[in-house]
Amino acid sequence: MSATTEPGTKSVPLQITEDEAAVYDRQIRLWGLEAQQRMRNATILVVRLKGVATEAIKNIVLAGIGTLIIMDSENVSEEDLGAGFFFRDEDVGKKRVDVAKARIQSLNPLVTVQTMTEPTLLEAESLDALVMTVDLVCVTDFDREGLFRINEVCRRFKKPFYAGGTFGLLGYIFCDLLKHDYIAPDRSAPKEATKNIKNTLVYSPMYEGLNHKWSGLTRKQTRELNPAVVFTVLALWEYESKHGRLPDDPKTSSDLDNFALAFLAKAEVNKQAITAIPRDLIETIAVTAAHEISPVCAVVGGMLAQDILKALAAREAPIANFFTFDGSTGGGTVCRLNMP
Question: Which CATH class is domain 18-182+294-335?
Answer without folding.
Answer: alpha beta
